[in-house]
Amino acid sequence: MSNFNNNGEKITKAANMLKAIAHPIRMQVVELLDNDNSLNVTEIYSKLDIEQAVASHHLTILKDRDVLQSARDGKHTFYSLKHKQLSQIIQCIYQCLDE
Question: What pTM was estimated for this model as a whole?
């Protein structure tokens, strides 16, 4: 990594993204969206077998931390990963657990 002093803002943003995905439900959301690309909140909470309010709460956190992006289509909001590489971080951690 290059000069830490010049990358302070970038490091802070990266840490916030990692904090956002560092929760079991949010990790599942990232994995789900990596596989299905774009889903609405109903599809997400149904596939994860969680309550709608819980799904909405975690989706908001992920969107606020720049992990997800959203697009409206009529009355539905569809969520997708803003950065596909984030799912690779989760897979890397799983591989570390298998060692």
Answer: 0.86
